[in-house]
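Re: the 95-residue chain
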Amino acid sequence: MAFDKSEVEKIAHLARLHINEAEADEVTKRITDILALIDQMQSVDTDAVEPLAHPLDVAQRLRADRVTETNHRDELQTLAPEAQDGLYLVPKVIE
């Protein structure tokens, strides 16, 4: 698929971008090269290729899910100015 300079200028106008003649030529060449690469990649036969979630066959090691710390809530609530039913009571800030 070829991309011409007039299309680049139209898109630049719609995007409110200012590009001069030299930049328009360069952008046209780059977009044409990108589209050619996409066409080349789409022409590859991938019917026999199975989709991958990750290119390497690795397994993620996970640690055991177990409690490692003791519950200090009761001790910490004795330090709080006010606590009730296991909850910290704080002043109302929104009226």
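DSSP finds three helices and two strands in the chain.
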